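hey
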């Protein structure tokens, strides 16, 4: 069985799939390098403006000054440092700098502090980096203000996803907010922020590669598809389906991991991956888990893998049903395009919470680290709910493929 799986897996790496994977990698790399080089700029440690890809390394060097644990002493030093800084004077004269892909070392601690004041209404920009707040006079009052802001936002999100949330359910979320461990460490994490963003933006490329590459797995007009010999062999129908299905899933996972590796290498080379051990709240302000940014990204990457497996199984079902590689590829591409279009319309039609849970294109979304679904008074994390939904999808698609395979015939319909 293992040998047969290996043979089926190797057959999937044909000219079409190799070209598709190379194209995916090329598009991802060009997208990241060209956009980051064209759009971003920063203020370096000498007060100079650095533009393009060099700005990220300059920002990393300058940010060494703000690394630390945000306790009372740190906050007072931060206030003094920022109020006397070149960055503050520069922002007063260039009001749109931070709102147009400008970066400075004070972004991470200052934005985090401003979130404690603005809560759900927080946004990036010059107006949201000041430190003139009474609650900063003590560490206790600051973190109390921060947790109140988190409670406000998670409550609004819960009611947005499910207007029928009870007071008891909302109280569960508020208790989680109270249990966030403080004080929190802060520092540079721009490379990880870039990784999260670009991983998300180009994620659909994986789906299109799978649409072309797996379309011929069960076709009868493809060199690697189903033949009379396959169906008439001793273990044809009993083993061949499982071998091909496992190989198809291994291929889907391989394509996804190649895509993920490209994103990690590209963003790491440009901006470094420093900050993995920082608290998740430094990147996702309202996160209720006491985990690191690195652990949060690993959760996103895992659920992203599940989304790729779902699409891979959908394409395999099309291949089985249509038995024609070109038709299966066309229907698969249309399905991926529709799924992508549905994702784009989710927030417009107010169905974001539901679609986040059921749309494979959204399984890699960072909101899975912030949203919850309630079962009674038990708050189920979205990333866990997504995993359950993905497993159900794969099981249903496998059953559909298996039923069709029992009736498979090379000649006729």
């Amino acid at each position: 069985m293992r040998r047969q799986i290996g043979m089926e897996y190797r057959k999937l790496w044909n000219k079409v799939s190799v070209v598709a994977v190379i194209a995916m990698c090329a598009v991802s790399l060009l997208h990241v390098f060209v956009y980051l080089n064209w759009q971003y700029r920063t203020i370096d440690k000498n007060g100079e403006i650095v533009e393009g890809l060099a700005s990220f390394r300059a920002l990393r060097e300058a940010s060494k000054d703000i690394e630390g644990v945000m306790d009372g002493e740190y906050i007072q030093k931060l206030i003094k440092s920022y109020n006397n800084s070149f960055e503050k004077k520069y922002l007063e004269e260039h009001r749109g700098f931070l709102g147009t892909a400008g970066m400075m070392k004070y972004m991470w601690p200052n934005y985090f502090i401003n979130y404690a004041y603005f809560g759900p209404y927080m946004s990036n920009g010059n107006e949201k980096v000041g430190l003139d707040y009474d609650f900063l006079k003590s560490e206790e009052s600051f973190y109390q203000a921060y947790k109140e802001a988190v409670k406000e936002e998670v409550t609004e999100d819960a009611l947005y996803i499910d207007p029928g949330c009870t007071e008891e359910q909302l109280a569960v979320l508020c208790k989680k907010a109270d249990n966030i461990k403080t004080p929190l460490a802060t520092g540079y994490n721009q490379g990880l922020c870039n990784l999260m963003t670009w991983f998300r933006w180009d994620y659909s490329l994986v789906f299109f590669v799978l649409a072309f590459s797996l379309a011929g797995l069960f076709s009868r007009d493809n060199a690697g598809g189903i033949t009379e010999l396959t169906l008439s062999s001793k273990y044809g129908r009993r083993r061949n389906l499982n071998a091909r299905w496992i190989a198809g899933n291994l291929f889907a996972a391989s394509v996804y991991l190649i895509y993920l590796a490209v994103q990690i290498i590209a963003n790491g080379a440009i901006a470094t991956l420093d900050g993995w051990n920082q608290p998740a709240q430094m990147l996702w302000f309202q996160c209720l888990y006491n985990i690191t940014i690195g652990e949060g990204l690993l959760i996103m990457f895992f659920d992203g893998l599940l989304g790729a497996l779902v699409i891979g199984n959908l394409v395999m079902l099309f291949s089985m049903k249509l038995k024609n590689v070109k038709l299966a590829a066309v229907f698969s591409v249309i399905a991926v395009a529709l799924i992508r279009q549905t994702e784009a319309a989710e927030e417009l039609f107010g169905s974001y919470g539901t679609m986040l849970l059921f749309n494979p294109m959204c399984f890699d979304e960072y909101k899975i680290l912030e949203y919850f679904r309630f079962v009674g008074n038990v708050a189920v994390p979205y990333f866990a709910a997504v995993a359950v939904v993905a497993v159900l999808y794969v099981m249903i698609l496998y059953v559909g493929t298996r039923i069709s395979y029992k009736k498979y015939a090379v000649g006729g319909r």
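The mean pLDDT is 90. The radius of gyration is 25 Å.
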